[in-house]
User: Which sequence fits this backbone?
């Protein structure tokens, strides 16, 4: 199957309210261009430098999503062009994004990453952390960021039931937080689901899926 066939296959099965982020980390520009030529305009990367390089080389009507763990000192390299940052896990990070966004006179949309997996390797905030952040005065003073939803990664396991429970927890938390909406928090996006679990994620309420290997094939980290 080609990249184009994979993309068309996935797109044709998606409900209209679900957005596909094509996760292109580690993949060469030629692969991304194949997806672009097939109509894909939203790409997800997990390293800021790699995303910035690809942004420079590729057509300018692409939306770039940062889906990885963000280092504060690198925010400046994407502040000018990034469309959505999925993995916010602290006020400090949000504050830095706000600062860099204001230098470019723009507002950057962000998702708070909720820790739903049991694995320690997966980062993210607790639902209590999220609530405290959203009601704080310091947060309300940030004028160059907007929280537009939540993101989560389920545990890497064959236990579908566990994955389902984790997705459901993200959806429930999202619904509970609706009452905390404010000028810079409008909750619309639930980013959950990857190649192995996106169908289940959609059944559990996902509105944005992040799919890599089912589009581009398996990743080779050794080169
Ligand atoms: C790599 C990655 C994905 C895509 O994973 P696949 O299993 O290849 O679809 C999705 N989300 C995040 C945060 C990732 O780092």
Assistant:
């Amino acid at each position: 199957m080609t990249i184009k066939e994979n993309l068309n296959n996935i797109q044709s099965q998606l409900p209209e309210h679900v957005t596909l982020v094509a996760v292109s980390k580690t993949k060469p520009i030629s692969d991304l261009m194949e997806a672009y030529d097939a109509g894909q305009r939203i790409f997800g990367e997990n390293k800021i430098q790699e995303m910035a390089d690809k942004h420079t080389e590729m057509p300018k009507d692409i939306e770039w999503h940062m889906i990885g763990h963000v280092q504060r000192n690198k925010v400046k390299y994407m502040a000018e062009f990034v469309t959505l940052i999925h993995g916010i896990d602290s006020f400090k990070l949000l504050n830095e994004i706000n600062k860099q966004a204001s230098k470019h006179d723009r507002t950057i949309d962000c998702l708070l990453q909720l820790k739903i997996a049991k694995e320690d390797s997966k980062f993210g905030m607790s639902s209590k952390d999220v609530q405290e952040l959203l009601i704080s005065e310091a947060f309300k003073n940030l004028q160059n960021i907007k929280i537009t939803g939540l993101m989560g990664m389920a545990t890497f396991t064959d236990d579908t039931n566990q994955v389902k429970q984790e997705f459901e927890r993200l959806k429930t938390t999202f619904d509970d937080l609706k009452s905390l909406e404010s000028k810079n928090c409008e909750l619309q996006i639930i980013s959950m689901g990857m190649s192995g679990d996106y169908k289940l994620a959609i059944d559990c309420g996902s509105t944005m899926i992040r799919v890599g290997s089912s589009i581009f094939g398996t990743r080779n980290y050794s080169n």
User: Anything to note?
Assistant: Residues 41 and 62 are 5 Å apart (CA to CA). The radius of gyration is 17 Å. Residues 23, 25, 46, 67-68, 153, 194-196, 210-214 surround pyridoxal-5'-phosphate (CB under 6 Å). The chain has a mean pLDDT of 96.
